[in-house]
Model the fold of this input.
Amino acid sequence: MRRVFRIAQSAGTTLRKRDDGGRKKRDVEGRKATPAGFVAAAVSMAVLLALAFVCGCGKTDDQEAPSSKAEKPAGGLPEELVNHMETAPGPGVTVVASAEKPAEVLPADFVNYTESIEGLDGTVVPFEMIAVPGDTFTMGSPDSEKGRKKDEGPQHEVTVGPFWIGKVEVTWDEYEAFAYPYRPKGAPWMEKYVDGVTRPTMPWGDSYRNFGRDGKPVIGMSWYGAMVYCRWLSRRTGKMYRLPTEAEWEYACRAGAEGTYCFGDDASKLGEYAWHTDNAENSTHDVATKKPNAWGIYDMHGNVSEWCLDWYGSTHFGSVPSGKWPKDPQGPESGKNHVVRGGSWKSNADQVRSARRNRSSDWWLKLDPQEPKSHWWLVPTDNIGFRVVRPLHGEEPPFPAMSNGL
Ligand SMILES: [Ca+2]
Done:
């Protein structure tokens, strides 16, 4: 018998910068939490409560919200590298358990959280992570789906473990905290900022492509640049961040929906959820200015396409017999190009579908006048960005070899 329960509802967090001139002080206040709630679907209340108790999520609307304070991240980092973290109740994620596949018992601190890093000139740059309990879902699209490409099939069931994913695409504020933390101003930056992590050279041409900077998703970085950012963020925070696998990305995009988009099949609603070619007016847009999906994640459809961890393989979905996919599957062991997902402001309605797959392309290097080509920036990719995930389990991916950035 399949049993369904809802573990939590969304909550909001507001942050305030502390104007004390100090770069190490962060202040978070005004947190608002909505008590967790349950939705029973076709099960008895007794079964529901028992299952919720086992999973440590046994709060009702009449009870207090879960503890909002998490322990400071460990890792032996110096105080100035330990970032403030504030947590909030998790998303409205439906977890399905069965006798054959019991739901994983998630730790109590597996909840949404906001973390801050130091941005340019000592500014505080918060970013929010959404807790997504793992589950089994159907990856790919059916033959009947409008706009479907052959590489989206065959559909296959895969299981992903629990992870957090960025509520929004990585912004310029976040990426430049990594890329250019030591713009020379006569300060002794050597002692303050050198941390052993390689960083991008300046791009050729205008980084922002006349789209603007504040609130906008970072664009134009190579897959290598996105990977090294994740490595830097991991060292900076004491938590392991990486790019999402293609399976994690599609699971988070769908947010439980099996149709064409996260909101169903009705393309007439797409403008409510996505910046794409019909409404973007040839530009990226501020993140989180369209509706989120059911799990509170923004811009999975459109705005900027998003790098994934995996190599692309056009026939990869058919490479494993049905029912034999390992948990947390990844793409081919090697390849030439990496996966890009979600479509962008340049994409039409078919190209921003949940199952749509894209990949880097050799021509992305051709407009770079530099020799050798930059492995940090790809000149034509004014529509490519990324978001980070933090898996609950698993090891950090190997540091990527210096590559052509694709
Ligand atoms: Ca996107």
